[in-house]
Structure formats: structure tokens, C-alpha cells
């Protein structure tokens, strides 16, 4: 039986349209989900929108619409974008769904039954933009002595009756969790940051609000709504049917990985495991905090006027180019930057001129010179075998080992080296010259190349699903033979069939800059 694999992204705040950071995170999760499916695992992939909280309520008030109307409209933009990005999610969750209210109330009651919730008065700093409480000691000073959160967002002094979660009780258990499971928090730098924070001591957490009502009602205390993070984190359980003991829940919980950005690591590695321990539920196996994506080195913001619609990037460059660029350009886990020039340069060098050109050169040559079909009979030479070995090592060992660790860029680097080796082999073997001097040897060379192109296309398919399947279609590889298990069977290295090959990547030009 296929081993289950449950992967989630953060759920996104639909208080505006999706931005490039949302696209980046969801693409990375999709690549991992597709990769694990190809490895033969039964994957459950969840994403969605986080629709409660003060941030949503305030934005709706500013627009003079209800929070529900805002969530309905914006959530649609997220779904449309994810369709455009070819995101293969199994469940798109919206926290306004009734089933989610039920799940959030159930985990609340479980925490209450464990004696971890009590009513008191909250007095302290709150950042609406971060939907987070901060200690005085964590605040930084902005211009004009204004107090700001460590993320640089405004904070306001809040005083209200609130339910509290006894987070202070969990310090030791959390530290033991991090120590016993070094991979629970990745990358290492985030793990260190969280450990220092927890070692510094934990205060009980305010987990309800009375000053607004846009949220999940606290069971038995109707004038309170849950702190948005309590319900938001619970989405990972809701999607599997919690609190019912469904088949999905039994199969997929605990999650294999929560993929999130570095700014929300504390919520996922301190609060969330503590809530789960309190509710007596198993803990996720890993939380990975990826870096931030910057636009030419700068954070996108309305005031800088550099906010880019990720859908437009797809229209300009193509979905596979964007997916490839974002995972290839810089190491996953670190911050990285994008610009149209960098996308065009990377795509032309690696996708159009190297991989795309390799496939098109070989397949159109076969169409023209061999009627698209032949069986090679000449012996396999050591040089052919050497190329096969190089490609197979990259596709079956190096890329999968790197992707398992979420080291997408180095996996793609190994893959690209194998593409380069194929191009060097064509130049050396010069099949166009063999056509006249030794047609049998020419067929062997072409068959070797087709086997390599097949392997390269299967291995890279989680990243560039559209282009790779175009190439595999042209190579007449049946869809059932397009996973990592298929790579294990080396082709007979003989039979070749090519149908209607078309270039998978156009050579891109830089978009014309508007004069301004
Ligand atoms: O934090 N680059 O939602 P969100 C890369 N609702 N990733 C980025 C980014 C950037 N420039 N900007 C944001 C929330 N992200 C909560 C999550 S989960 C139970 C609740 C990432 O819409 C961010 O780190 O502000 C987060 O993982 C995700 O996008 C959604 O951010």
C-alpha cells in the first residue's frame, strides 16, 4: 500500500488579492506534492484561505462590505490563481465553512477538558497586520518613537476580557520535542530562533476576543470569538474531517509537512504543537519555514508601487517558466529576489536553449530523417552507457534526494548538468553526419538520447508539468509510465517513436518597458 503523505500550505488572508509570496509558497508545495505522487506515495495536499480575524473585519469595514462578501470575492481570486499556476491541491479550505467552525470548537473543547483554558483579562500589545500579541520587550521603535512589532507593523494597546491558553505549561514539552526531533523545525536557522524563544519562557496566550464578532464562537461563551490563529491552525485538521474519526483523518494525520513562510514560524512550532498536545492529538512531523520573495531585492508594497500580480507573470512568461524560476533561482529556505530580466535569462539559458532545445533537436531530427519511428539494433557503446549513467544518476538519485530535503535548486542543478551532458553528446556524436556514414549507429545515438529525454522529462515533471508532458506525449510515453518507478526500468534502448514534436519553450524576450 502506498505510504500516505499529507502536505499543507499556510492558509492565506484574503484581505486583498494574492501576491507573489502566495504564489511562491503554493508552487513549492505543489512541486513537493507532485514529486511525492511520482515517488508512489498517496498524497493529500491542502491549501486555502484564512477568512476570520480583525484584519479581515477592518478591511471589510473600510470597503463598506461585509467580511463574508470580502472573503467570498477574494477567495475566488486565490482559487483562480492556483488554477492558473497548475496547483494540484486535493482540498481548498475556507475557514468560514461550517465544518471548520465545528472542528475549531471541538479542539477548543478538548483543550478546555484538559484544563488548559481559563477566563481572565488581557492587557497588552496587539498587531492587527500580524494578528499577533507581543510582549513589551519584543517591540521596536519606529519613526517618531512609535511602537512597532518586531515585524515593523503598528501595535495597539488592548484591554479586554479574554480566554487564555496555558502555554506556560508547555515549555518543557516543547523543548523536548525540538531536541528529540531535530527535523521538526526546518531550516536549522529557524529551529535555533524558536528554541531561543521558548527557552526564554512562555506566557499564557490570549485566545479569544470580545471587541468584534467576526470569527468562530467560543463554545459556551457566545460573546467571545476565538483568536484567529486558534481557528486558522485548526484548518489542517478540518480538512481531514476532524473531529470525526474519518478514514482520511486516520490515514493522513499527523501531517508530514506544514510548508509556511518564516514570519509565521512561531505560530506553527510553538502554539500549534502546544494546542495539539493539549487536545491529545499527534503532532505534525515537520514545519518548514521558507524565505521571502522580494521584487528586485525589495519587499513589494503599495507605497513603493512595485506590487506585481502573479497572474500577469504567468501571462507574460508562461506558467512552467515561473514555476521553474522560483525554485531554481535561489535556495529554498532563504530569501530570494526576482525580476523580469532574471526570469528571462534563466528561462532562455536552461529551459529554451538547453532542455527544450535538446528535446526539439532530437525529436524533429527523428521525425524528418527516420519517419518518426525505428528500432535501433547497433550495439550500445561505452559512450552511450556513460551518458545513460549520468542521466539516470541525476534523475533517480540526485534530484529525488534533493527534493526530499526541499533542496529544489540543487536538485535542478544536478538535472541541468545531465541536460548539458546530453547536448555535449549530440555535438560529439553528430547524428547528422552519421546519417550518411553509419545510419545504424545514428539510430543507436538517437535512441540513447530519447531514453535520456524521457528520464529528464519525468524527473522534472513536478516542476514544469505542462512542458514535460508535451515532450513525453511527443515521445509516445504512456501516462502510466511517467513516474519514478518507470525510471527504474531502463528502456530497451531501442524502440523509438516520435509524434508531432513542437518546441516546449519559446525563447523569451524582455517585456518592453513603458516610458514613464
Ligand atoms: O500569514 N514571500 O497569511 P498571509 C514568500 N493567514 N512568502 C510570503 C511572502 C513573501 N513575500 N509574503 C507572505 C498568514 N508569504 C496566515 C497564515 S496558517 C494557519 C495562517 C507567506 O496571507 C507567509 O509567510 O499573510 C505565509 O506562509 C503565506 O504566505 C500566507 O501569508
TrEMBL record:
Keywords annotated in UniProt: Aminoacyl-tRNA synthetase, ATP-binding, Cytoplasm, Ligase, Nucleotide-binding, Protein biosynthesis
Catalytic activities: tRNA(Met) + L-methionine + ATP = L-methionyl-tRNA(Met) + AMP + diphosphate
Domain named Methionyl-tRNA synthetase anticodon-binding: residues: 385-494
One of the GO BP terms on file: methionyl-tRNA aminoacylation
Major location (coarse): cytoplasm
InterPro entries: aa-tRNA-synth_I_CS, Anticodon_Met, Met-tRNA_synth, Met-tRNA_synth_2, Methionyl/Leucyl_tRNA_Synth, MetRS_core, Rossmann-like_a/b/a_fold, tRNAsynth_Ia_anticodon-bd
EC assignment: 6.1.1.10
Keyword Ligase tagged: yes
SUPFAM superfamilies listed in its UniProt record: Anticodon-binding domain of a subclass of class I aminoacyl-tRNA synthetases, Nucleotidylyl transferase
A GO molecular function held by the record: methionine-tRNA ligase activity
Keyword Nucleotide-binding belongs to the record: yes
Pfam families: Anticodon_3 (PF19303), tRNA-synt_1g (PF09334)
Broad enzyme group: ligase
Places the protein is found: Cytoplasm
A cellular-component GO term for this protein: cytoplasm
Domain Methionyl/Leucyl tRNA synthetase: 6-363
Matches recorded under CDD domains: Anticodon_Ia_Met, MetRS_core
Subunit structure: Monomer.
Family the UniProt entry places it in: Belongs to the class-I aminoacyl-tRNA synthetase family. MetG type 2B subfamily.
Role description: Is required not only for elongation of protein synthesis but also for the initiation of all mRNA translation through initiator tRNA(fMet) aminoacylation.
The protein's name in its UniProt record: Methionine--tRNA ligase
Gene from which this protein is expressed: metG
Amino acid at each position: 500500500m502506498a505510504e500516505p503523505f499529507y502536505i499543507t500550505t499556510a492558509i492565506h488572508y484574503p484581505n486583498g488579492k494574492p501576491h507573489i509570496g502566495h504564489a511562491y509558497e503554493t508552487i513549492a508545495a505543489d512541486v513537493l506534492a507532485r514529486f511525492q505522487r511520482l515517488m508512489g506515495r498517496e498524497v493529500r495536499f491542502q491549501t486555502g484561505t484564512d477568512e476570520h480575524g480583525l484584519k479581515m473585519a477592518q478591511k471589510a469595514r473600510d470597503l463598506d462590505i461585509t467580511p463574508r462578501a470580502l472573503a467570498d470575492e477574494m477567495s475566488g481570486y486565490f482559487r483562480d490563481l492556483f488554477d492558473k499556476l497548475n496547483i494540484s491541491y486535493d482540498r481548498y479550505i475556507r475557514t468560514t465553512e461550517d465544518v471548520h467552525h465545528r472542528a475549531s470548537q471541538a479542539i477548543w473543547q478538548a483543550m478546555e477538558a484538559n484544563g488548559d483554558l481559563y477566563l481572565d483579562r488581557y492587557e497588552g500589545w496587539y498587531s492587527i497586520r500580524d494578528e499577533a500579541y507581543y510582549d513589551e520587550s519584543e517591540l521596536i521603535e519606529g519613526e517618531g518613537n512609535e511602537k512597532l512589532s518586531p515585524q515593523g507593523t503598528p501595535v495597539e494597546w488592548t484591554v479586554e476580557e479574554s480566554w487564555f491558553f496555558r502555554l506556560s505549561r508547555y515549555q518543557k514539552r516543547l523543548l523536548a520535542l525540538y531536541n528529540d526531533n531535530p527535523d521538526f523545525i526546518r531550516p536549522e536557522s529557524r529551529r535555533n530562533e524558536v528554541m531561543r524563544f521558548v527557552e526564554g519562557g512562555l506566557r499564557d496566550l490570549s485566545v479569544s476576543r470580545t471587541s468584534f464578532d467576526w470569527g468562530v464562537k467560543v463554545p459556551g461563551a457566545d460573546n467571545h470569538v476565538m483568536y484567529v490563529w486558534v481557528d486558522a491552525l485548526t484548518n489542517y485538521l478540518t480538512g481531514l474531517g476532524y473531529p470525526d474519526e474519518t478514514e482520511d483523518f486516520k490515514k493522513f494525520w499527523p501531517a508530514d509537512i506544514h510548508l509556511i513562510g518564516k514570519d509565521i514560524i512561531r505560530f506553527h512550532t510553538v502554539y500549534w504543537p502546544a494546542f495539539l498536545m493539549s487536545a491529545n492529538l499527534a503532532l505534525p512531523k515537520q514545519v518548514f519555514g521558507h524565505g521571502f520573495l522580494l521584487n528586485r531585492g525589495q519587499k513589494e508594497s503599495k507605497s513603493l508601487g512595485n506590487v506585481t500580480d502573479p497572474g500577469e507573470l504567468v501571462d507574460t512568461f508562461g506558467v512552467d517558466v515561473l514555476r521553474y524560476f522560483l525554485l531554481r533561482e535561489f535556495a529554498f529556505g532563504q530569501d530570494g529576489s526576482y525580476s523580469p530580466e532574471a526570469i528571462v535569462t534563466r528561462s532562455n539559458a536552461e529551459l529554451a536553449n538547453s532542455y527544450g532545445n535538446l528535446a526539439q533537436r532530437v525529436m524533429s531530427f527523428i521525425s524528418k530523417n527516420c519517419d518518426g519511428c525505428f528500432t535501433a539494433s547497433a550495439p550500445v557503446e561505452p559512450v552511450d552507457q556513460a551518458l545513460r549513467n549520468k542521466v539516470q544518476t541525476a534523475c533517480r538519485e540526485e534530484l529525488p534526494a534533493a527534493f526530499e530535503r526541499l533542496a529544489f535548486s540543487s536538485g535542478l542543478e544536478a538535472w541541468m548538468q545531465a541536460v548539458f551532458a546530453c547536448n555535449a553528446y549530440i555535438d560529439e556524436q553528430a547524428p547528422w553526419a552519421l546519417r550518411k556514414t553509419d545510419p545504424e549507429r545514428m539510430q543507436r545515438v538517437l535512441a540513447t538520447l530519447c531514453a535520456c529525454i524521457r528520464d529528464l522529462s519525468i524527473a522534472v515533471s513536478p516542476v514544469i508539468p505542462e512542458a514535460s508532458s508535451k515532450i513525453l506525449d511527443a515521445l509516445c510515453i504512456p501516462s502510466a509510465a511517467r513516474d519514478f518507478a518507470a525510471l527504474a526500468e531502463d528502456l530497451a534502448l531501442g524502440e523509438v517513436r516520435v509524434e508531432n514534436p513542437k518546441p516546449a519553450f519559446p525563447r523569451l524576450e524582455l517585456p518592453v518597458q513603458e516610458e514613464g
